[in-house]
Structures are given as C-alpha cells and as structure tokens.
Amino acid sequence: MNELDEFRAEVVAWLTENRPPEPDFLLPESFMEVGSDSQFHYLRDWQQQVYEAGYLGMAWPKEYGGGGREQVYQDIVTAEMARLNVPFMTNTIGLNWAGPLILAIGTEDEKQRYIQKILSAEEIWCQGFSEPDNGSDLGNAQTKAVRDGDEYVINGSKIWTSLGSYAKHMILLARTDFAAENKYAGLSYFLAPMDVPGVRVQPIQKLTGEYGFTQTFFEDARIPASCLMGTEGQGWQIAMSTLTFERGAAGGQAGGLSMVVVGVADVVELARHAMRDGQPAIEDPHIRDELVKFLIEEQGDRLCESRSRVTALCSERPGSIALSGKLRGTELRRRLCQFAISLQGANGALWVGDRDAVAGGKWQRSYLNAFSATIGGGTSQVQANIVGERVLGLPKG
Amino acid sequence: MNKPQLSLAVDFSDEQAMLLDTATEFFRDKSPITYVREQLTTEIGFEQSLWREMVALGWLGLAVPESYGGSGLGLAEAVTLAEPIGRCLFNSPFQSCQMAVQALLAGGNEQQRGRWLPRLAEGSIASVAVIERAGDWSLLRPECNGIREGERIVLSGVKTFAVDARVAELIIVSIDFEGAPALVLLENAVLPEGALTREVVIDETRRSFRLDLDGIEVIDTDLILSHAALAALTAIRDTALLLITAEACGGTAGVLDIVVAYLNTRTQFGRKIGGYQALKHPTVDILIGLERARSHLYHAASVLGDTQHAEVALRMAKAHGSDAFAYAGDRAIQFHGAFGFTYECDAQLFLRRALWCQYQFGDALHHRKHLAGLLF
Ligand SMILES: Cc1cc2nc3c(=O)[nH]c(=O)nc-3n(C[C@H](O)[C@H](O)[C@H](O)COP(=O)(O)OP(=O)(O)OC[C@H]3O[C@@H](n4cnc5c(N)ncnc54)[C@H](O)[C@@H]3O)c2cc1C
Known about the structure:
heterodimer, A: alpha+beta, Butyryl-Coa Dehydrogenase, subunit A, domain 1, Butyryl-CoA Dehydrogenase, subunit A, domain 2, Butyryl-CoA Dehydrogenase, subunit A, domain 3, 3 domains, 4-stranded mixed sheet, 4-stranded antiparallel sheet, globular, B: alpha+beta, 7-stranded mixed sheet, 51% helix, 15% strand, binds flavin-adenine dinucleotide
C-alpha cells in the first residue's frame, strides 16, 4: 500500500468509528437548510470533531489553524465523506468562500482573527449579498454603509441569508458611495459582525415548511471601520472573487463534504424496489432508458472533473468545465430527484411524515430542496449567461 | 449493487498531446471548408496527395505494431486524429482503415496479419462491410453467406455501407458461414464488374457502397472463423464507436464555432442576436454537450484495453457524443434563419455529418438499451 492508500484507510476507519449516530430529526441536505437548533448543534459538533481529528482545512496554512499538508489529503477525506454518506460540514460559507477569500487577499490580522474559528465551527459565517429588490442584479445592491469616525453605520436589508440565525460574521456587500460613476464602483466589502446592536434576523420559512434562511435587517448598526476588506469601492471585485470560490470555479477551499450527495445509483436502488404493473420498475424498458440517460450525464460530469486535470485536453476553453460546473451539477440533481419521485407510483404524492412515504419522503423533500442550488449562488439562467458570455464570448443581453 | 464502479480514468500522454496539436493544425490547413465543398462532387471524395501526406506522417501505421511496420501505438492515438478530422469535416478512409487494422489484430491469423498489416501501414486502403440492407446494427447476425463447394466458398447476398470500398484494396466482409458469423478478407481485385454500386448517403462528403457478393468465390485462407471472427467483429464495433465519437466531438466543436461566429455578427432589432437568451442558452447547451462528450471520449480511449470498463465507456461515449453533435447541427440550422435553410450555409454540412455519425454503428437509444443490460 502506498502512503495515500494508507491515509485513505485511516480516514475510512476514523469516519466509520466516529460518525455521529442518526438523529431522531431530519437532517438538512445542505448549509442552506439548517433550520432548527437541534440540526445546527448536531452539525456544528460534528464539524468540530472532524477538525480536531485533523481532517478539515488540511491544505490551509498551519499558522492559521490549517493542516499545512498537500491538497490531495483533503480531497481523499472529502471523497470518503461523500462515499460513506456522513453529515456535511455546516460552516460552508466560511470554509469554502469567506475562508479562502481571506487567505487569498485578507490582511495578516484577518487571517489570525478568523481562519481557525472557521475550521472549528466556533464562528459561523453567513453571506449578505442578496437584497429583496436586488438578487441576480447583485451589482445594484442598495444597503448603505456610511463612514462615521472609526465605524461604519449600516442601514438596509439583506435577504435569503443562509445560516443567518446562527452566524457570528457576515460577508457583507454594501454601498459606500451613491454618487460613484457606475453602480459597481460604489460598492464595498465588509467582514461584518452580526452581534452588534441594530442587526436583526427574521427566519423565513422554506417551500418544504422548514426554515433555513433569514432576512437580515440593519438599523443604524455600527461596525468597526477595520471590518472593511480592501478599500472602499473594491466591493464588486471582491464579491466576484468570492463567487468564483462559491461556484467552485477556483480552488483553495477548506474541503470537507458540503452537502448530501445524491447519485444515480441511489435512484437505481429505488427503481429496484418500486413497482410497475406488478414488476420491479427496474425491469421497465422506459425506466431503464431514463436511468441510463442520467448515468451518462452523471458520468460525463465526473469525467469532466478528470479531464479538467489534463491541460492538453482543455486548452481551447480553459475555464469551460469549471464555469459550467454549477449549472451542470445542480440542474442534473434537480431533474434526478424529480425522476425519483415519478418512480414511486401513486406514492409519489406522499410527503414527509406519512407512514407510507417512500424513504420517509426523502425524495420529495430532496426535489424541493434541489432548487436551493439552482437558484442560490446565481440562478441557472444567470449561470448560462455567464458561460455564454465568458466562455463562448457571446454578447451580453 | 454488486456491479463494478464506473472508472473515472482520463489518461492523456505527451505523445497524444503532440499528435492532437499536429493533427489539429494539419487538418485546419489542408481541409478548409472550400476544400470540403470541392470534394463533395469528386469521385473518391478526397485528395490523393493529402492521403499520401497522412501516410508519410506515419498516421496510417499508428495502431499497427512495429513488427508489421507500424509505430506500435494504439487506437487511443488514432482518436487524436479523428477528432480534428471531424472538426474540419475532412473525409478519408482513415477510419475504415483503423477498423480493418483492429479487426486483423483481434482475429486475423499470422499469415493474414503478415499479408495485410504492413500494406495498411503504408497507406493501402481497407474497408469493412458489416451492415446489410435491413439496416440492423447487430453485427452478429449476417444473412449474407458462404457455401462450401469443394476448395472454394461461394458467397451470396448484399452488404451495405462498405465505406470507401471503391478505393480499398481489402474489404473485410461479414457473412454467415456454417451457422456462425465469419469474416472474409476480400480483395477488391477479385470483384466482378458491377459488384460495387455507390450509395446515396446523407453526408455528401462520404463515399459509401453497396457490395453484391453473389457468385464471388474465396478460399479458406481468406476466412476468419468462430471465436476469432467474434473478436474481430467486436474490434470493428469498438473502433467504430470510438472514432465516430471522436469525429462527433470534433464536428460539435466545428459547428459550435460557426454558431458563435454568426451570433456575434448577425444583428436584428438593433442588437447582436447572440444577446438573445433564446439563442444564447441553447448554445451553452451545445457547449455542455461537447464538454461531456469529450470527457466520455478520452475516458473511453483511456480504458480501451480494460475488459471490465471498455464496453460501457464506448457505448456511453457514442450515445452521448453523437446526440450532442446532432443537437448542435440541428440548432445551427435554426439559428441561421433562412440562410440556415440554404445549401450554401455550412451548417447543413455539419448536420448531415452528424446524422451520419448518429446512424452508423448504433444510435443513442440502441446503445442505452445495451448499457442498461450491462449496468443493471
Ligand atoms: C436556498 C437559498 C439560499 C440562499 N442563500 C443566500 C445567502 O446565504 N446569501 C445571499 O446573499 N443570497 C442567498 N440566496 C439568494 C440568491 O443568491 C438569489 O436568490 C439569486 O441570486 C437570485 O436572485 P432573486 O432571488 O432575487 O431572483 P431574481 O433575480 O429576481 O430572478 C427571478 C427570475 O428571473 C431570472 N433572471 C434574473 N435575471 C436574469 C437575466 N439577466 N437573464 C435571465 N434570467 C434572469 C432568474 O433566473 C429567476 O428565474 C439564497 C437563495 C436560495 C434559494
């Protein structure tokens, strides 16, 4: 066995031994759906345990609490977490976008102050980009930040703030200059505390009936001027680099599983048990064909990952695979969950809580939750614009 | 599930990278669209001098072992030529020759290989004739047959889609012989007058022929039998699936270029039509189809020799790749408006090539059906 195989075996043993027991409540499927205290504490404890065992932030610098090792070790852990289907790492925004952003462009102070506590889940991060009137058109954000001595005074409202109820910090995009030459130039970027007077969060109920995100109100909330990242007016540029981390188009993330993985293999299993005209659905030629179509797509996306590591096979459009990844992956998941419900016959219409619901209504809930990723982080339509314009060079609409 | 996990290998050597670069440049130079259009009406569909250049570059011997005068590489290297060939809509017997080489390697005996492989490496042309008039993609049920009459075997029946057969020295023909599939190594020189007739095919760059076998006589040493025949037929199928997918990937990239260029120039309602999402988003779908197809392609090329993974990989690649190409060609017509409806618009050349690729060696539905059997 080579060293990596040995490491993998060690990880598998640790995860198997230490995975938390099944809770008596439903777990969320991603950080965008953490809606109850019991869910939150369960997931936070688990992340802390993983970090303390040395399996998170393995490639982040040692001096800030990371493992200082090569990325390949973290990748092995992440892959095994997915394979063994253990709970995900709940501080996703910190681990996968605020953290790498701070490591990439933050000051020494910021790195010392924030990074280790992101890994340990001691401090949860949320993202304050979207506003009630400005979603896809993020550059039009109107939340106001006015400098007053050593502080900025924030007024306005952010919405769809995942983990908003639990966060200690927010990456906040706010307008410091209302007279700037264009809407983008007036924006600034803050690493803002949530526990100051004048910040209020209001949970919002999701389509599943559960909770997960909040509306965040700022009413003369004062934050230290040192929370400004970069300089005034750099907000848009920093927000854009945050989004490249968020959409997985840039490396540097702390790693660890960030959402429940749903694969075609799970749906194949479902088709073995579902019945059609007295026979297992997996015997039905139409259903077989649909399953193979999904498998070809899923395998195609996995192979895109493999191919993206071969430079000579990506030279013509180097950003293509990474930039289209979110669009491909999230839409596939949505359609796959939708199909999984259709396999259940009349029981497709049952919901979580019914005694006869297939797998406890997991697929119905997964389908509705799948929109979190086709909308959050930039909708599929906006993703398609981005790919069309940046990868193919098509004109803006 | 106790089925094996799908492999995720994508291996690509420096040698392949170099070949891909060289071939990309070669076909871009030698096969611009004006050349492609000139060839539409020629007898053999390609320039002999170009073929000689390809031979001189060693490309016809790529997959031929060194002991037979080739360079001892493999089909994975042939892929790096087939993709740029597809991109430039180039036509030549390159693919047919690769199928013949693989058939001989998989099923030919020492004498048959020794006779043909060195010649193929030097640019002699071969064709395979494994399809019949019913159009069934199954290669294992030939109805053409051979009846033994003493020393001789007398053939009968009609084969179709003998691509490039007119210029081929060797035609590898599948028949039923004594109740099992067999292959005949048929020399063009022995064909009676009129045995080959040109087919009218949807892809006008191609030259494809109907082969009338009635009364043609061969001898035992021309035959590949039983297990060897099955191995050779499998090799023909696998080679076809791989190289057609490669061509389809190239073709998709080629037609995508045309679409993007038009969306960036044509103006309506005062703006470039590429700004309209009704055109932009399907164009992104073409790109995504292409990215997945190329990933399947180079994966399939990476696991060719691996009996556990090759068939699944090849069928997935062909199913996805040829549909992605057909979608790209289809949208390319629509996005050119009435100009897209003309013979002059190059989009039609790509759509016709795409349809050809779809219906050679099994369309997506056909392969998905087989995949279902392999996977669940
Ligand atoms: C579960 C979930 C969690 C989220 N978490 C966060 C978070 O933590 N922090 C945060 O800041 N935000 C978060 N968001 C918000 C998310 O980023 C926005 O919802 C998203 O950017 C879209 O904005 P919108 O909802 O205002 O929709 P709109 O922008 O109003 O879009 C409405 C519709 O119009 C389409 N559309 C808009 N513009 C275009 C265009 N140019 N071309 C084509 N179609 C277009 C959209 O695709 C959509 O279908 C979350 C969203 C969800 C669903």
